[in-house]
Amino acid sequence: MADPKGFMTTPRQDWPRRPVEERARDWDEVYVPGALLPIISKQADRCMDCGIPFCHDACPLGNLIPEWNDLVSREDWRAAADRLHATNNFPEFTGRLCPAPCEAGCVLAINQPAVTIKNVECAIADRAWEEGFAPPRPPERLSGKTVAVIGSGPTGLAAAQQLTRAGHTVAVYERDDRLGGLMRYGIPAFKMEKHHLERRLEQMRAEGTKFRTSTAVGRDIGADELRTRYDAVVLATGATAWRELPVPGRELTGIHQAMEYLPLANRVREGDMETSPLSAAGKHVVIVGGGDTGADCLGTAVREGAASVTQLDIYALPDAERDEDAEPWPTYPMRVYRLSAAHEEARDLRTAPVADADARLFAASTLRFDGDAQGRVRSLHLVEVDARRRPMEGTGRTLPADLVLLALGFSGPDREDGLVDQLELELEPRGTIARDSGFATNVPGVFAAGDAARGQSLIVWAIAEGRAVAAAVDRHLTGSARLPAPIGPYDRPMAV
């Protein structure tokens, strides 16, 4: 603990964002470049190095947070990078994309603003790359065992890196033309620029991991063929089966899933096309769904030049502070009002004059869509609902809508490629892949991890799943436990 009084003398200071008018005109990350390092050591001083650090329990990776906070406060960046990478393969991803359940579990957060753990993590990761503290770590010798990892999202990449470093020969199969899964085509560049992803992929290639893009297992290569070719198979395909909105008018042109819209915008950034065929430019946009994916659609539509953007959230407007009875510390408070960068932009630019707050209408449920004579959507009819989601009489209203984006989450792995059926995998009632306490499916030598088995979750859980399934596969191949397993398949976030 570098400064025993740091939490009393230093107020919380977050990484400042660029002015809204500036950042809404480009696709660069929203934060002020270079503004984090000058403040981060003093922010790390606020860590109390608690006797029982609940931030450890709140983080499924078991990140050694007080240790690297202390090292950052002393500006020992090499040691801090070593401690951070000991538990997290991709801290520059989590430092930008994770909602930081560790901060909700910070002991300081009982009665003060939490330590800026996420910012400290990001600062360490970026400094590690700048100073060369994250070199490739190829294995000293090969085991002679081979592993196929299906999916190149955070779970698949974490599993592949751990297994490669353990000496196994690993090939990652990705059905898209580029690697990264949702980090590539689902996450907008203003949240994480893609050079962070490319840098890690180059590190993994240098370590010996092989990548096969544009290859859908089950369609381009048979699942049984893959099982024959490799000693073990890891299914990390994600939960890409999106949820639908079965209301009248859903068939109208102009109503799309968020994951139809976001990848096209990202492909424009990759240089694949000049303009997205689903561009929001000049359109009245309504986003149905109040989660992070909806916020990503919001920020994207703002940058594309939408005439208006409104986001519908079926939950009531949350309070500014956590409800200690319903969501007591150190659990992660789901129903707290948070202002993401995209919501701040929409608020300041007044994209939705009818909104309750920023661009959002709360306690709003979609009743139907209406269209024009050409079959294109032109309006959305909604009604306010009570806490039990029952319509409230006299609260109906109509919003203009030329483009509707459904951001309602995902139910499980996509079965379109045939992988699930070819392997005859057992599924849970909710549609995810069933597995035992060792991450193994009902098919010998086939393991499942990440959202495909856990269900839709956070990036920090995805990486933890990748590390844990790698440990299970390594044990299966070698008969011994050599790799760390931060979580089990049945572990869940802290809850009341």
UniProtKB/TrEMBL annotation:
This is Glutamate synthase (NADPH/NADH) small chain. Keywords: Amino-acid biosynthesis, Glutamate biosynthesis, Iron, Iron-sulfur, Metal-binding, Oxidoreductase. Pathway: Amino-acid biosynthesis. It holds the Pfam family Fer4_20. GO terms for molecular function: glutamate synthase (NADH) activity; glutamate synthase (NADPH) activity; iron-sulfur cluster binding; metal ion binding; oxidoreductase activity, acting on the CH-NH2 group of donors, NAD or NADP as acceptor. Residues 38-69 form the 4Fe-4S ferredoxin-type domain. Its EC number is 1.4.1.13, 1.4.1.14. InterPro entries: 4Fe4S_Fe-S-bd, DPD_II, FAD/NAD-bd_sf, FAD/NAD-binding_dom, Glut_synth_ssu1, Glutamate_Synthase, Helical_ferredxn. GO terms for biological process: glutamate biosynthetic process.
